[in-house]
Amino acid sequence: MRIGLLADLHANREAMEACLEALQQAGCTRHVFLGDLVGYGADPGWVVDVVRAQMEAGAVAVLGNHDEAACSPPDAAGNLRMNADARAAIDWTRKHLDPGQLDFLRALPLQVTEADRLYVHANAWAPGQWSYVASRLAASQSLAATPQRLTFCGHVHDPALYYTQPGDAAHFDPHPDVAIPLLPARRWLAIPGACGQPRDGNPAAACAWLDTETDRLTFLRIPYDHERAAARVREAGLPDALAQRLLTGA
After folding, report:
1. DSSP assignment, residue 175?
2. Tens digit of each residue's pLDDT (9 = 90 or more) over 108-149
């Protein structure tokens, strides 16, 4: 089976559509959504509805910090920890989701285990505290917190792959369209990158897919109409910096 992996969709319809099409072309028959379905972008309701339909067909989705913020009161701690642009986007998002969509987000689990895989938005050691796996030390801490051989997470908007070795986990930056064998003697943590708001200087949407039969992982970068997505952000009255970020990928 080939499983599509998407993280940090951030209400970006154009990016999500492009990634789903690319994953379908790659032969994926099932998807995992690694949190932050909403926030920043102009189409939260559309994204939530698509993920909900995918889950009815067997997909998996986990809760992200922006999802939690959107279905929490404005003065909740998670909202207050966000920067001004993120808070403004969450306030806007909350007003553009209906009660059923908010209930859907509220019911998402923090993590899901399946076979030898863990799916989580932030990390395995404290998934509801939203700390980042942004270093070899943090990757080691996350890998040590779960017995699962493979961990897939988001939250960090740059693609990355870590694996166990003596000392801190090893890290490398994956190249798109190169199948990586996930050797069984190692344990792995993969971050597919952000579908809806890349931050590595490349505006192309990021995602990945796992072949469970060959135990190979392939990262993808998918060009999409990011200028249209940025225009939609501006048309919605969201902070201009969020549109600019889509244009530059930074």
Report:
1. P
2. 999 999 999 999 999 999 999 999 999 999 999 999 999 999
What does the DSSP 8-state code read for residue 215?
A: T
Task: Give the integer Cα–Cα distance in Å for 101 and 52.
Answer: 9
Domain boundaries, the chain: 2-248
Dihedrals φ, ψ of 204, to 5°?
-65, 140
What's the chain's average pLDDT? 95
The CATH number of 2-248 is which of 1.10.1060.10, 3.40.50.300, 3.40.980.10, 3.60.21.10? 3.60.21.10
SS3 19: helix
- Confirm if 206 and 18 have CB atoms less than 8 A apart: no
CA pair distance 38, 83, nearest whole angstrom: 16
